[in-house]
Amino acid sequence: MKFSFKEKKDLFFAGIMISLAFAILLSGGFRLNLNSNFLIIFVIAFFTAGIGFLLHELMHKYFAIKYGLFGEFKAFYGMLWLAILFSFFGFIIAAPGAVFIKGRITKERNGKISLAGPMTNLILALIFLVLILFLDSEGIFRMFLKFGFTINSLLAAFNMIPAGLFDGKKVYDWNKKIYFISLIIAIGLFVLSFIV
Length: 196
Fold this sequence. Notes:
- The chain has one domain (5-192).
- Helices cover 70% and strands 6% of the residues.
- It has 7 helices and 2 strands; from the N terminus they run ααβαβαααα.
- It has helices at residues 5-26, 36-66, 77-87, 107-134, 139-159, 167-174, 176-192; strands at 70-75, 97-102.
- Strands 1-2 form a two-stranded antiparallel sheet.
- Helix 1 crosses helix 2 (36-66).
């Protein structure tokens, strides 16, 4: 895959800013205490939420290119700043950016390209779940695994909303059976993340 300088910059800043938003959220929002733990929490947020987001977007681009289309990620800086702002209030509404696709695209290919992102988050969530179940982890490492499982299952479920510009809308329009199977798995894993 080839990336323009602007695309690299957008991916870098979107990954950092979304990680920062989750780090602020995990650190207590307005009760944030910038002590030595914040850096650890930021690293956890980056390797769970940040990487989950980046891989999600890169898979959209990969499948677009695989189908002979042009795909380029563009960050939504206004939404990234809002995500950081909202994180101080204890929640995050994030639309950090999207892969814009050009070329002749069918409904099936659009559905498959759109599904690639949430499927990436589901695979990451399952990896974190397996590590939780098979490693006798405690403390900060368990927190890392648990957050990775929760956030990636949430990212998958959230992106499967069947409306607007969400991935779910394009998957639903292409194949309703695949849409509902994917949605049920994503929601199921997200609910499970509160139990394990």
